[in-house]
Specification:
It is built from eleven helices and no strands. It is mainly α and 198 residues long. Helix 4 crosses helix 5 and helix 4 crosses helix 11. The protein starts with a helix and ends with a helix. GO terms for molecular function: [acyl-carrier-protein] phosphodiesterase activity. This is Acyl carrier protein phosphodiesterase.
């Protein structure tokens, strides 16, 4: 669910971006149906997810959410991270985030024929509702939480998760500040390794 982070951690490389964004929709060996550079993006996404789940800051963020959303706490923590990335003044201004979001949508539409069917179905909503930009706003985060609830098979929608987000806002910010520089450095190194191996 942290689409903004995966887009940002593609380092402006279009094929990496495509793979990074569609990875959750590409199961198992189906990755081999894609061009090699897109495959690298798919693998990069999976490595980012593994690193993220294991990081102590993510575990701390998830622990704050677990009492209200149980096993889905990690998915909600991903959304929380995207909010703090969107509001991180060292990485985005309001204007540059909006421009980044629209460049990302344009790149995805340019690769439309490569996109998995389910991702194609979602893309118009992502662009029309400007998901990547709207992680910046509290209403956008509330909407993104709703998206997690819609995809969760065994979780009933509850406003309690947004209440935790508001109440623990500064604690979540600290988790992001601990986590994001680490994932940025890790991903840059992983991308170079994956390129060498491809």
């Amino acid at each position: 669910m942290n689409y903004l982070a995966h887009a940002y951690l593609s380092f402006g490389q279009t094929d990496i971006l495509i793979g990074n964004m569609i990875s959750d929709y590409v199961k198992g060996k189906r990755k081999f149906e894609y061009p090699p550079a897109v495959q690298t993006g798919i693998m990069l996404h999976r490595n980012i997810d593994t690193f993220t789940d294991a990081h102590p800051a993510t575990k701390q963020a998830a622990a704050l959410l677990k009492p209200v959303v149980g096993a889905y706490a990690g998915a909600f923590a991903d959304v929380v991270y995207d909010h703090f990335l969107a509001t991180d003044v060292q990485r985005f201004t309001d204007e540059s985030l909006n421009a980044f979001a629209h460049r990302t949508y344009e790149a995805l539409y340019a690769a439309y024929d490569l996109l998995p069917e389910r991702f194609r179905g979602m893309l118009p909503y992502m662009k029309q509702q400007n998901w990547l930009y709207n992680y910046r706003t509290l209403s956008g985060i509330e909407s993104s939480f709703g998206g997690v609830f819609r995809r969760a098979k065994y979780l009933e929608h509850t406003p309690a998760v947004y209440n935790v987000f508001e109440k623990q806002y500064e604690a979540f910010r600290e988790c992001y500040n601990d986590f994001f520089p680490a994932v940025y450095a890790y991903t840059a190194a992983q991308l170079e390794l994956l390129k060498k191996d491809s």
